[in-house]
Amino acid sequence: MEDKQELYNIKELIYMSFPKYLKSDVAQIIKILPINKPVINSNGEEIPFVHEIIEQVLIDSEEIKINSRIYFDEPHMINEEKLNTIQRTILNCLYSGHHNGHIRQTRIENLLKSNDYFTIPFIISNAGGYLIEILNIINESLNENNVKLFRKFIQDNPKYWDLTKDRIVSYWNEFYRFDFCDFKDYVGSDFIKKIEAH
């Protein structure tokens, strides 16, 4: 019963991570996710599918909820190749929260090729993460078109943007201050300035 309940919960959490107009596409994604088998960590222990720290943001006045980490594997490549463009973008959003940093980075690189507004919170969330490699990729990809989407998002979600900036500063202080003594020399400072410039 608990396994069925957890499976139901993970599906509901995934649906809540995207605007309602994408529901039928999200349903196609859920069909190919490997969530029918338990996730086992390196110690041989079964762990939950997601780390349920859920953050709420607005996308075009609709509230969505984003999970901070997922732990299930990526779908088989054959199944992924059958998806249409919007479904692949949704899948990239979902796996941009994967516990494996290499998978996160690859999925973020894919997301940065999209102009879909619903991708922005997933990119912002990663910009506020601890991996400077991902923050560098996001910062380098900023252009006139996607910066407009970022600005729209932060205008609608000022508290989440403040939280993201706090995280950027905090991770700089914790991990990168030795390499970048002054925050203004850190990529996170450049990213914030680009987004907030008018």
Compose a concise summary of this entry.
By secondary structure, the chain is mostly helical. It has helices spanning 2-16, 23-32, 77-81, 85-95, 101-111, 120-127, 132-141, 144-156, 158-176, 187-196; strands at residues 39-40, 46-47, 50-59, 62-70. It is 57% helix and 12% strand.
Description:
Helices cover 57% and strands 12% of the residues. It is mostly helical. It has one domain. A two-stranded antiparallel ribbon has the order 1-2. Strand 3 (50-59) and strand 4 (62-70) form a beta hairpin. Helix 7 (132-141) packs parallel to helix 10 (187-196).
Attribute tags:
12% strand, 57% helix, globular, 198 residues, two-stranded antiparallel ribbon, disordered N terminus, mainly alpha
Write the layout of secondary structure elements.
Layout: H1 2-16, H2 23-32, E1 39-40, E2 46-47, E3 50-59, E4 62-70, H3 77-81, H4 85-95, H5 101-111, H6 120-127, H7 132-141, H8 144-156, H9 158-176, H10 187-196
Antiparallel strand pairs: 1-2, 3-4
Strand content: 5-15%
Give the overall form: globular
SS element count, helices = 10
How far apart are the first and last residues' alpha carbons, in Å?
Answer: 54 Å
For this structure, the quaternary state is: single chain
According to DSSP, the number of beta strands is 4
Mean pLDDT: 89
The class by helix and strand makeup works out as mainly alpha
Portion of residues in helices?
55-70%
Biggest β-sheet: strands ordered side by side in the sheet: 1-2
For the sheet with most strands, the description reads:
2 strands, antiparallel
What is the N-to-C succession of helices and strands?
Answer: HHEEEEHHHHHHHH
Q: Please compute the radius of gyration using only Cα atoms.
A: 17 Å
Task: Indicate the low-confidence ranges by residue numbers.
Answer: 1-5
Number of domains: 1
